[in-house]
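Lab notebook, page 48
Experiment: co-folding of the full assembly
Goal: obtain a model of how the components sit together before planning crosslinking
Operator: M.T.
Materials (sequences as entered):
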Amino acid sequence: MEPQLLMGNEACVEGAIVAGITFYAGYPITPSNEIGEIMSRRLPRLGRTFIQMEDEIASMAAVIGASIAGAKAMTATSGPGFSLMQENIGFAAMAEVPCVVVNVMRGGPSTGLPTLPSQGDVQQARWGTHGDHPIIVLTPSSVREAFDLTIKAVNFSEQYRTPVIMLMDEVIGHLREKVVLPQPESIDIINRARPTCPPEWYRPFEDNKSGVPLMAAFGDGYRYHITGLTHDEMGFPTTKPCEVDAAINRLFKKIRQGFDEIMLCETFLTDDATCVIVAYGSVARTAKSVVLQLRTAGKKAGLLKLQTLWPFPRRAIEGLPQSVKELYVPEMNMGQIYREVLRVNQGRRTVRKISKVDGELITPQEMVQVVA
Amino acid sequence: MAQQYEIRLAGLGGQGIILAGIILAEAAGIYDGKFVAQTQAYGAAARGGFSRSDVVISDEEIHYPKAQMLDLLLAMSQDAYDDNLKHLKPNGILIVDATYVSQVADTQVYAIPFSRIARERFGRENVANIIALGSLSQLTSHVSEQALEQAVMKRVPKAHREMNRQAFEAGKGAARAALRLSVRPGGDEDI
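Observation: model returned without errors.
Model output:
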């Protein structure tokens, strides 16, 4: 494909289209607006559906309904809208409805800083909806990654029947870079597994080796019940401890079994490093330039870039070489991933956070001052 | 570290600052074939708030995507000038829209009335950004004139191509006039 100048939000749309998104419902909010705007132009021309809903609660509900009816569905929003979506995201986790929610993070809490970047929604993406539930959260640090990880997000949602959150920060959402997108034919697309048995044999939430039940679309002729209440294999509410326990544990099992595949990270110059910066999103770009600066100055620095934030890629931290004595976790928040690094580090190495919450990206100078 | 060329376009919402940044990035990245990163920052208001766009151009992969020490600053409003001058490198290129930037401390400045030219020649101020790009094409060698003109033609609405082409030309002319008046830096080489 020809090189083109694309914005992170545009690349997200291109990725979604390649991944087979057939339904988009949303409500405009800065800094995610371009996603909905471009979807509204592109999807109808492809014979797919775009609908602007009255708010983010309804947007998420429409996405869930469309997905249950067999569509590959997504929405995009920012912090305030993401808060409104939480209840329905919980429904999607419980009823195992594949869907993708893009949150282009701006400063918070509340309406906060509409046009400025932040990484303040990292823990919300994990725990924003109530109850024990697993979730997959991905985060890109370049325009090309916005494309690639949107495809991954759609694929994971289909493969594991789970909501997948794509967290971008405003810098990446609005960053324009030259990218060469791959040929669509070269990209693996995953579609949810559907039942082929006679309808009367279908057990909609039956466990199997993968832990992911076969999903029939409403209208396919498989009549079944779907609910946010804790349910048995037939989809009907249950309070029997053995069924409740099995249902919740299966939700975790299916993600745990896929952990290695879901855990996306990149290392840069970590093999002989004595200090490693653990970063994600736009801050990982600052970190890479700092690593190069420090190497020039003779300090053995490396970078661990997280593309998956949840489930937390603990094995990437645990697998760093013995030579690494110090970890630095720069974030545009008060230390939301820093806590996770501390948790899995178990005191083995020194862990320091670098927090910035003034609405601006951490600069290389600011980071060098702490790490050097 | 790789040598990067860092440009900031700054002004008010509604002046087309971000579109100018996109055009500049497309010129450098797609038509000149360099690495480029374009970012933006703006206030929440649709018109009248601050607006700025950074374009970083490099021969190598760009990590930190924002401008830090500016090689070139285009200020389209007094606030934009006041807020961003401190980020300009010594010997950096300073271009201001003389229509709105009247308080200028620096003597090494290309003061061109982009908005007034737009109003007088084209009857509308919103081509001031394209006039400014035309001028910019003459004042820096880090993005080629042909690339910029191609990028302008690609990004502006079809119905207004001719006007924008003329606006770009007007900007080039204004910059050449400004160059003739300016004191040139350097002058050490043998001739």
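Interpretation: The beta strands of chain B are 4-12, 35-42, 50-58, 70-75, 88-97, 110-112.
Next step: discuss with group before ordering constructs.
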